[in-house]
Amino acid sequence: MDEISGKPGANADFERAWELVARLRAAIAQRIVGKRDIVDGILTAFMSDGHVLLEGVPGLAKTLAVRVFAAAAQLSYRRIQFTPDLLPGDITGSLFYDAAGARFVPRKGPVFANIVLADEINRAPAKVQSALLEAMEEKQVTMGDASLALPQPFFVLATQNPIEHEGTFRLPEAQLDRFMLKLLADYPDEEEELQIVLANADRAASASLEDIRPVMAASDADCLKAAAKAVRFEKDAAAYAVALIRASRPQDAASAPQALRELRRYIEFGASPRASLALYRASRAGAVLDGRDFVLPDDVKKAAPAVLRHRIVPSYEAEAERISAEAIVKGIVQAVAVP
């Protein structure tokens, strides 16, 4: 486990990280009204070297939130619009023949950026979606016999629309598992929507982000990540995180409490150890966002839905009774005792 006790300059590192978080939140709030859970989810995954799947109906500022974050963080940004006719090479790049040098030369695709927005990722077939797998997991792209390293930091945010199914392709489970968090964008409340209208009624939909001043340098990303890694995570809190993930696996039902045994008939497949690691890292980043250098069980509980909601495969019985993965996750969080 990561410890910060006795580490030279640890307090200064955390102070710097908390200052950066406050600046990023303030910069994003210039254009994004509300959406604190979405903003903090993006910051959590960024600090933890993870990736985000962002789901919501059109018009909820999903793309804008990513653009504003990239502008405020002063990181290179590329947007890829996924469509049914997209090819893998349109994302990763390809080799082209240089006649003058009589050799093949890599031509890098839009994935070679610090922040990559995969817009409407479920509109492309699985072969194209999987083109991101190596980039997300290995932070590299293979072209021919060469592996090209991606710029660091490398952060993928993918959006998808949950209400349109015509012309869409379901993301494979293997790719879903590569996303550290799945965040849900919901409608604003009445007061927030009024603020949106008053602030944006005369602003073009394609307005530039020149008014968003960068609040950090690229090197500051290392400071944020170092702070998250240095957060104290006591064994009891870590055991709680593992218990939440294991509670999602139907094969572990024999010794589980009655509430979990009832839930597990609705689960076909549960979360893997990758989810345990994701929950551990998300909890550390959540502590930093709350201005602490140690993890509380509430940090684990708060991070669990975003880590689990896309990793649980509901059973046929759950689908027949219209019980969603979100409802199953909620039941797991309620059933597992907090230490």
> What is the total domain count?
2
Count of DSSP H/I helices: 15
Q: Provide the CATH superfamily of the largest domain.
A: P-loop containing nucleotide triphosphate hydrolases
* Category by helix and strand content: alpha/beta
Please give the CATH class of the largest domain.
Answer: Alpha Beta
Helical fraction equals 40-55%
What is the total tally of β strands? 11
- What summary fits the major beta sheet? 5 strands, parallel
Shape: globular
Q: Using the coordinates shown, work out and report the CATH topology of the largest domain.
A: Rossmann fold
What can you see in these coordinates?
It is a single chain. With 339 residues, the chain is α/β, with parallel strands linked by helices. The protein folds into two domains: 10-201 and 215-226, P-loop containing nucleotide triphosphate hydrolases (Rossmann fold, 3-Layer(aba) Sandwich), CATH 3.40.50.300; 231-335, Helicase, Ruva Protein, domain 3, CATH 1.10.8.80. The protein is 44% helix and 14% strand. The protein has helices spanning 10-29, 36-47, 62-73, 88-92, 126-129, 133-138, 173-176, 190-200, 220-229, 235-246, 258-264, 273-289, 297-308, 316-320, 325-335; strands spanning 52-55, 77-81, 93-98, 103-108, 115-119, 140-143, 146-149, 155-160, 181-184, 267-269, 313-314. Strands 2-5-8-1-9 form a five-stranded parallel beta sheet. 37% of the residues are buried. Mean pLDDT is 83; it is low at 1-9.
